[in-house]
Design brief:
The complex is a heterodimer of chains A (about 300) and B (about 290).
Chain A: H1 2-20, H2 23-48, H3 56-74, H4 78-100, H5 105-125, H6 127-130, E1 136-137, E2 141-143, E3 146-148, H7 151-173, H8 176-186, H9 188-193, H10 198-224, E4 226-227, H11 234-247, H12 252-268, H13 276-290
Antiparallel strand pairs in A: 1-4, 2-3
Helix pairs in contact in A: 2-7, 2-10, 2-11, 2-12, 3-4, 3-5, 3-10, 4-10, 7-10, 8-10, 11-12, 11-13
Chain B: H1 3-31, H2 38-56, H3 60-83, H4 91-113, E1 129-131, E2 134-136, H5 138-160, H6 162-172, H7 174-179, H8 184-206, H9 220-229, H10 235-255, H11 258-275
Antiparallel strand pairs in B: 1-2
Helix pairs in contact in B: 1-5, 1-8, 1-9, 1-10, 2-3, 2-4, 2-8, 3-8, 5-6, 5-8, 6-8, 9-10, 9-11, 10-11
The chains are: A mainly alpha (about 300), B mainly alpha (about 290).
Chain lengths: ~300, ~290
């Protein structure tokens, strides 16, 4: 019963928002939704499976560049291109997982770091496909003759897609798969000893995070309407990880919190623009020292109706 | 281009990578943490020297001493604020903590020193001198010299002094060292101070070659590659790894393509981790249950 009530309230708010909020606020809402999907990927792979990933911005690049290139070169509309590139990214993530997850901890962080750097350099040097260092414009999001170009219109695409992704993954994390990841995080050896294929499980978590990263990237691309390879580097990967840490890594809600803080903070602190990065970095420092293991003392039981 | 010329310039870059790798290896060996904030410490170290020189008119050498002292303090702070409180936490939390303080350093410099590049003075003249048909730059030679000097001083410190031996003992066996009366927390503190000072030396040497901006810390990735090449636990290996990486970069840049020059260090990092995580020189890794 509570679940139905929640869904009804949520749906009501969703329909109400465009009439109440200004266009810029809708833009921010879309930005939060898309970013939260990306950060959700990190919740799955780092928070749940305990595997550190600095490759998230590379997967975001796969999603946004992938869908834009498919539209540009193959005339596949974005509504089809985004899921296609997300699935493609999932395969890349699975393969990357299979080969890198044999090494754990710091080596994994290094390997994913190198992966991000390589992908960024490819974006810069593959001029024919990606427009090189200058970047490339993103074609408009259109379904048939219905064109979504402004934030107020894209809202009806991005927010429902993000909500769907969150519902699916929040359930997945409470399924057998989620429990396997949690078990693996606590003891790989014990998990393997009860017959779970740890490597495959980790690779699947990596694939899921790649899928979500690319999906979020694909959704954000028409919103920002231009892709610049500088947005997909190592520093951005660290920022995404920071959002996950600040929001709380053990629950999907944390991804929403983290992205909301990252996107709304600049507006709340308009007079301190110069110090924004520093403030966010200090927030990250405090979060990791104060909640090093849980990374989500914020235990919200939303949607866990009983 | 002349092969000797290529090797000379490769050696300079290699020495820089090796210097940075030394700090990684020291911290990894000693405390078991791969320090993702190290590149940013290198960057901050250069700023520590730049700030007294530019704003207070302090001459070069006193400014260097100020920088070394402030970086020692920074090392203490990092240990006290991050690494000591997190000493019993998961590796994941500690890795994220190094990323966190690195980001804080980078953003601190961006906020207070601006996002743009600063000019940084050379240790020796940057003008090239022709020796036997090969152009040699004294400033670059100084980097190679300094790297060798630092390596040998580090060697003497670790092998010939009491504190150094305590550090080596702790690197070898933490429990054993603490049983024979080594204060492990003091050793960790001295490792962080030492590595922080090394980062500043590297920063002061490379800042004139690169541009000193908050993003200079990305040079740290090259340092990682050098350290991984050398096996991540061997101090001489770090320097050898740096030189090998410098040569690889210069040779691909000259004979293959300049685009590939940027990619090669990441590809090497990736490949080594996958194929030979113990590095070129390291012993075989065995996972203990």
């Amino acid at each position: 019963m509570r679940r139905v009530a929640f869904a009804a309230i949520g749906f009501g708010l969703f329909l109400l928002a465009p009439h109440v909020l200004r266009d810029f606020q809708l833009f921010q809402l879309c930005l939060i939704a898309g970013t939260a999907v990306i950060v959700l990927g990190l919740v799955v792979v780092t928070g749940m499976a305990g595997q550190i990933s600095l490759a998230q911005s590379a997967f975001v690049a796969v999603g946004s560049y992938g869908s834009a290139i498919l539209a540009d070169k193959c005339h596949i509309p974005l509504w089809a291109g985004i899921p296609v590139s997300a699935v493609g990214a999932a395969f890349v993530g699975f393969a990357l997982g299979q080969i890198t997850l044999r090494v754990a901890g710091h080596y994994l962080a290094l390997a994913t770091l190198a992966f991000t750097a390589i992908v960024q350099l490819i974006l810069i040097h593959a001029d024919d496909l990606t427009g090189g260092a200058a970047g490339m414009p993103v074609p408009a999001f259109a379904i048939g003759s219905l064109v979504f170009s402004k934030a107020g219109q894209l809202y009806y695409v991005i927010v429902p897609a993000a909500v769907t992704a969150f519902l699916i993954f929040a359930n997945l994390l409470r399924s057998r798969f989620g429990r396997m990841l949690a078990a693996m995080r606590q003891s790989e050896i014990a998990t393997a000893s009860v017959g779970i294929d740890v490597l495959r499980c980790k690779a699947l978590a990596f694939a899921a995070s790649a899928f979500l990263g690319a999906l979020g990237g694909g959704l954000l691309a028409p919103l920002t309407s231009y892709l610049d390879p500088a947005q997909f580097g190592v520093i951005e990967a660290i920022s995404l990880l920071a959002m996950a840490v600040i929001g709380g890594m053990r629950s999907p809600i944390g991804a929403i919190f983290g992205s909301a803080i990252f996107i709304l903070l600049p507006e709340a602190l308009q007079h301190f623009q110069t110090y924004l990065g520093l403030i966010f970095a200090l927030l990250l420092c405090v979060s990791i020292v104060a909640r090093p293991d849980g990374l989500a003392s914020l235990r919200l039981n939303l949607g866990r109706g009983r | 281009m002349h092969l000797a010329q290529i090797i000379i310039s490769a050696l300079t870059n290699g020495a820089v990578y090796g210097l940075i790798a030394l700090g990684f290896v020291l911290i990894y060996k000693g405390t078991g943490v791969v320090n993702f904030g190290y590149g940013d410490q290198v960057m901050a170290g250069a700023y520590f020297a730049l700030i007294p020189m530019t704003f207070f008119g302090v001459p070069y050498w006193p400014a260097v001493i100020i920088a070394l002292l402030s970086s020692a303090l920074l090392g203490m702070l990092i240990y006290g604020l991050f690494m000591w409180p997190l000493r019993n936490q998961s590796l994941l939390a500690r890795i994220i903590a190094t990323l966190a303080y690195g980001t804080a350093l980078r953003e601190f410099m961006r906020a207070f020193m601006g996002p743009n590049a600063w000019p940084f003075p050379f240790l020796l003249s940057p003008g090239a001198v022709a020796v036997d048909g090969v152009l040699v730059v004294p400033a670059n030679l100084a980097i190679v010299g300094a790297a060798l000097l630092v390596l040998s001083m580090l060697y003497l410190f670790l092998e010939r002094t009491f504190v150094g031996k305590a550090i080596l003992a702790t690197c070898d066996n933490r429990l054993g060292a603490s049983l024979i009366g080594v204060r492990v927390s003091h050793v960790f503190l001295s490792i962080w101070i030492l590595a922080s000072v090394l980062a500043t030396i590297a920063g002061i040497l490379v800042a004139p070659l690169l541009t000193l901006s908050p993003d200079m810390g990305l040079i740290g990735i090259k340092g990682f590659t050098a350290a991984v090449l050398g096996g991540f636990t061997s101090l001489p290996g770090a320097v050898v790894g740096g030189v090998v990486l410098g040569l690889l970069e210069a040779l691909t840049g000259t004979y293959v393509s300049s685009t590939l020059k940027d990619v090669i260090s990441y590809v090497v990092l990736f490949a080594i981790i996958l194929v030979r995580p113990q590095g070129l020189l390291g012993p075989l890794l065995v996972k203990k249950v």
